[in-house]
């Protein structure tokens, strides 16, 4: 009887993890699959854009007959209500969860599941969350319009401050002492198991994504800083009550500094892998020989297949944790004639920490940020061959499906997905950077 | 040449008349396989098609309909669940 729920949860977790949706991630500890952690990446073109919102999902033995309970974890320790329906204390009001009176046909049913819950929560994170509050759906007076704007403005600030910057600062040990929360919900208690550390399954994912979206964060801070002076108080919304609101002041100047500090620290971390890696080589640890072997097999493999793309792969300083990949643009494509030097930094904790890819050769490409960070998604995370294949695929793909979560170069993406004329400009600029790449190397 | 059959074993293959990659909306197991509680597919764990044309493993749909919160509705389309016009209470559970 009890197996039933476990089988279904395991199946659902596997499907989400194997899926290609870049906006959701789920994880659980081996000891208890009924305690799931989920991460929702804030939808683009909303004030939640590229924020990291974490939720704890608890399933009972009666799942899927009964709905699981869902608690928001990203609440600034119980102080911040990120949405009319996502309370500071963690409560998520949603009719399919039975935490909100719903219309008929919106309640839980056993055909619902983890993914449909997460997508419903994601849909709460809209471009105008003010209208989520019951009674304010059609509120359109001048007073409401002013409120809507002020609400979006403060959510954007707190998304950047709490869900992105503070999360990353915690991960990287960039510490300022923080005031303990007012109401501390007991989510963590469910996870604490004696002396075990807190369950942080999304560390590496958030770091990788931070590097992808760094430019977007920075742009949005710079844009908003012009509109909101440092020290201006957040407007209070009519539906926000004591202990369940979003209070504070705009501090975009300090956010910018903190964002840049996180970025630098992340790059330091990437470079430190090389030194840590060398130590594991000296200690003859299995991760070192594993990567060495994978490297040799890939080189061998590309030597044999002459018809495939021309590339050159070598280790920097014979260190299996730093690979240099040189790709020669495939003839008859946009990349024809280009030579691209790409650094691949591997963590001693690979594959729990995924490699970080940096284009040393400047290139104007919608999947590559101005700083050279490539956005790609390997199919098999523990297999470096799959990583390299995905890297090549990401830069060669000529008509990818539109996915706003892959927009790591806002300028290039805008042209790439724009009008026919925009696309022409994009191609021209890409071609030019490809031609220049040969001189660069 | 004369061939004499001494004995023979017939081997048959059967499957539900359903699209091959379809899964039961409740347990998410393939129809070809059993619900999460059963071991052997086939008559031990039959499928049931409602009048709304949604199908489930019989055990799955009954455990849902036994819930008060289900209001005897189909989990997929939320119409009242009936089988050949008969409500659930008239269908005998195996």
TrEMBL record, chain A:
Chain ranges of the UBC core domain: 4-164, 286-439
Keywords, alphabetical: Ubl conjugation pathway
Cross-referenced CDD domains: UBCc_UBE2Z, UBCc_UEV
Keyword Cytoplasm: no
Pfam family, one: UQ_con
InterPro entries with a match to the protein in the record: Ub_conjugating_enzyme (IPR050113), UBC (IPR000608), UBQ-conjugating_enzyme/RWD (IPR016135)
Protein name, as recorded: UBC-like protein
UniProtKB/TrEMBL annotation, chain B:
Annotated transmembrane regions: none
GO molecular function: cullin family protein binding; ubiquitin protein ligase activity; zinc ion binding
Listed SUPFAM superfamilies: RING/U-box
Entry keyword annotation includes Isomerase: no
A single GO BP: cell division
Location of the protein in the cell: Nucleus
Record keywords: Cell cycle, Cell division, Metal-binding, Mitosis, Nucleus, Ubl conjugation pathway, Zinc, Zinc-finger
Keyword flag Hydrolase: no
InterPro entries membership: RING-box_E3_Ubiquitin_Ligase (IPR051031), RING-H2_APC11 (IPR024991), Znf_RING (IPR001841), Znf_RING/FYVE/PHD (IPR013083)
Domain RING-type residue range list: 24-78
Pathway, per record: Protein modification; protein ubiquitination
GO cellular component: anaphase-promoting complex
PANTHER family to which the protein is assigned, alphabetical: RING BOX (PTHR11210)
Family classification: Belongs to the RING-box family.
Protein name: Anaphase-promoting complex subunit 11
Organism: Delitschia confertaspora ATCC 74209
Classification of source organism: Eukaryota, Fungi, Dikarya, Ascomycota, Pezizomycotina
């Amino acid at each position: 009887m009890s197996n039933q729920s476990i089988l279904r949860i395991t199946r659902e977790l596997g499907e989400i993890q194997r899926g290609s949706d870049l906006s959701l991630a789920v994880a659980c500890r081996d000891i208890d699959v009924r305690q799931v952690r989920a991460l929702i990446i804030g939808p683009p073109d909303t004030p939640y854009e590229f924020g990291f919102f974490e939720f704890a999902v608890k399933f009972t033995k009666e799942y899927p007959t009964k709905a699981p309970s869902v608690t928001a974890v990203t609440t600034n320790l119980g102080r911040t209500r990120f949405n009319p329906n996502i309370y500071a204390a963690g409560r998520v009001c949603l009719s399919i969860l039975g935490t909100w009176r719903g219309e008929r046909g919106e309640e839980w049913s056993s055909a619902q599941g983890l993914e449909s819950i997460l997508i419903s929560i994601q849909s709460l994170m809209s471009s105008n969350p003010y209208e989520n509050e019951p009674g304010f759906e059609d509120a359109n007076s001048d007073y409401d319009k002013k409120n809507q704007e002020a609400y979006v403005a403060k959510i954007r600030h707190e998304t950047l401050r709490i869900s992105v910057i503070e999360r990353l600062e915690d991960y990287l040990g960039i510490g300022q002492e923080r005031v303990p929360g007012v109401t501390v919900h007991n989510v963590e208690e469910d996870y604490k198991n004696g002396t075990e550390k807190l369950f942080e399954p999304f560390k590496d994912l958030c770091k990788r994504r931070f590097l992808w979206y760094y430019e977007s964060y920075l742009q949005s801070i710079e844009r908003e800083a012009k509109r909101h002076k440092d020290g201006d108080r957040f407007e209070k919304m009519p539906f926000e009550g004591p202990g369940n609101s979003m209070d504070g002041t705009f501090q975009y100047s300090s956010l910018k500094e903190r964002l840049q500090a996180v970025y630098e620290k992340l790059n330091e971390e990437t470079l430190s892998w090389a030194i840590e890696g060398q130590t594991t080589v000296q200690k003859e640890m299995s991760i070192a020989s594993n990567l060495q072997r994978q490297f040799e097999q890939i080189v061998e493999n590309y030597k044999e297949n002459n018809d495939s793309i021309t590339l050159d792969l070598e280790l920097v300083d014979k260190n299996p944790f730093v690979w240099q990949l040189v790709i020669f643009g495939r003839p008859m494509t946009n990349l024809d004639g280009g030579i691209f030097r790409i650094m691949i930094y591997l963590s001693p904790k690979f594959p729990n920490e995924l490699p970080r890819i940096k284009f040393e050769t400047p290139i104007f490409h919608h999947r590559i940020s101005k700083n050279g960070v490539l956005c790609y998604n390997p199919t098999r995370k523990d297999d470096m061959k799959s990583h390299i294949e995905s890297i090549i695929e990401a830069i060669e793909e000529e008509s990818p499906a539109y996915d706003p979560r892959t927009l790591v170069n806002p300028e290039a993406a805008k042209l790439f997905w724009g009008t026919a004329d925009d696309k022409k400009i994009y191609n021209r600029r890409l071609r030019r950077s490809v031609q220049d790449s040969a001189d660069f190397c | 040449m004369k061939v004499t059959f001494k004995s023979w074993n017939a081997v048959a293959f059967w499957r539900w008349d359903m699209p091959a990659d379809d899964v039961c909306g409740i347990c998410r197991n393939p129809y070809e396989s059993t619900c999460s509680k059963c071991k052997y597919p086939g008559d031990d764990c039959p499928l049931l098609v409602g009048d709304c044309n949604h199908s489930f493993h019989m055990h799955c749909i009954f455990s849902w309909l036994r819930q008060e919160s289900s209001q005897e509705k189909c989990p997929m389309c939320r119409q009242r669940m009936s089988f050949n016009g008969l409500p659930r209470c008239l269908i005998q559970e195996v």
